[in-house]
Design goal:
With about 260 residues, this protein is of the alpha/beta class. The protein contains 7 helices and 13 strands. This is ABC-type multidrug transport system, ATPase component.
């Protein structure tokens, strides 16, 4: 469907924000890209969506794309329904009857006529999601799509991702939270400092800690470390769980959760 080979990206004469990225997305798969803010995830998706060009390397494949950026541009006078109809015509979508049921399913506060500039971040995200999925793309690209959505819409978004895969299309999404990525993706890649690596199939454990300190990302066996408020969430290789817990307790951390990561 789409393949990236040796893709790199830098802006002007600055440092590369993506380095030698190789990625193949096959039909009927959901690919999750896990990484912290600033790791290069959004740049990767912009290149895949065709809104930015790679500095080095090549992108092969021309699937029909639906794209939700990390910041949906909602500061417009146009209403949600009018905006989606406008985008549908741009994409050559003749059947506009899908728009209102989709907005109803997403529970857009204010209804289809609500001006975009009056919407909260979460509701603007719903309109952005609607414009991405309504064209029934071959490749649905979603940048941190669960961020800002209410709990009820989290479930709807999961259903839309599953429905896209069920009809043979593919989804690529990013998130900084390991649990979200593992809950929805069947292929997981890790993004760190502009480099993309496939996650090992070896089972991992989720450890949630509360306390003070840093350096968990460099701890042997820690695949990923994310700070969420007062907590640090670790994704740890099974063989290193005891050693990580021992260090946490020795350093005065409180262990709040230990559980297998979703397969």
């Amino acid at each position: 469907m789409i393949r990236l080979a040796g893709v790199g990206k830098r802006y002007g004469r600055g440092d590369f924000v993506l380095r030698d990225v190789d990625l193949t997305v096959e039909p009927g798969h959901v690919v999750g890209v896990l990484g912290s803010n600033g790791s290069g995830k959004s740049t990767l998706l912009r290149i895949m969506a065709g809104v930015s060009h790679a500095t080095t390397g090549t992108v092969h494949g021309t699937p029909r794309i639906g794209y939700l950026p990390d910041r949906f541009p909602a500061g417009q006078r146009m209403g949600a329904r009018a905006y989606l109809r406008h985008m549908a015509r741009i994409h050559g979508l003749a059947d506009l009857s899908v728009i209102d049921p989709l907005l109803e399913r997403l529970a857009l506060v204010g209804g289809p006529a609500a001006p975009l500039r009056t919407l909260s971040k979460g509701n603007a995200q719903k309109v952005g999601l609607a414009q991405a999925v309504m064209v029934r793309p071959d490749l649905l690209i979603l940048d941190e799509p669960w961020s800002g959505l209410d709990v009820g819409t989290h479930t709807i978004l999961g259903e839309l991702v599953a429905e896209t895969r069920a009809r043979g299309a593919s989804v690529v999404f990013t998130d900084h939270r390991p649990q979200v990525v593992h809950d929805h993706a069947d292929v997981v890649h890790l993004m760190h400092e502009g480099r993309l690596t496939a996650e090992s199939a070896e089972p991992t454990t989720r450890i949630v800690l509360r306390g003070g300190g840093t350096g968990w990302a460099d701890e042997p066996g820690v695949r990923h470390a994310v700070t969420e408020g007062a907590h640090v969430v670790l994704t740890v290789e099974l063989a290193r769980v005891d050693a990580v817990l021992r260090r946490a307790l020795d350093d005065g951390w409180s262990v709040r959760e230990v559980a297998p990561c979703s397969p």
